[in-house]
Amino acid sequence: MSFTFRPVDPLADAPLLHSWVSQEYARFWGMVSATEQDVVEEYSRIAESGHHQAFLGLDDGVPAFLMERYRPESSPLADVYEVQRGDVGMHLLVAPPNGEPQPGFTTAVMQSVMTELFDDPATRRVVVEPDARNHKIHVLNEKVGFRPHGVVTLPAVDPAEDHKQGLLSFCTREDFLATLTPILAAPAAATRGDSL
Fold this sequence. Notes:
Blueprint: E1 3-7, H1 14-21, H2 36-49, E2 52-59, E3 62-70, E4 87-94, H3 105-118, E5 125-128, H4 135-143, E6 147-155, E7 163-172, H5 173-179, H6 182-192
Parallel strand pairs: 4-5
Antiparallel strand pairs: 1-2, 2-3, 3-4, 5-7, 6-7
Helix pairs in contact: 1-2
């Protein structure tokens, strides 16, 4: 596995993204009933926002996941917690498996996403707010160092719902590095001048 990131092209990537977000496994993404045009419009809004960015994660050049990075102070999160300097919001959707699932793949994706976010020295803490019912992502989040803060009420992402109950969770750089093996953590710490 060798992951790289590139910005989403709302028009060119819409068919691929639609094939992911419209599947039942992606129900917490809130776009199961979306059309391809809805996907174009959503990712065009994100690209034009100035505070929210979407990236395709590539595994050896093949699209494997979608990562969104956003500024919490410009999102509905600003109404439910005190945003701190260096906070960065993140959303993640892994593509459906193509063939047999690879053990450890999703963890590797999450570690890659967190490394990408923390590569920016201004990022002090990653903030997530997955649906409180999405137990799979809570387990994955904890595996990479997220600590739950509590359930918060946010605007709905699913048109069939009135609101979203999200599990607000935080991960500091230190908490993330502590989840990595010393071999993986050493290069990240060395780039900051830290010792292990």
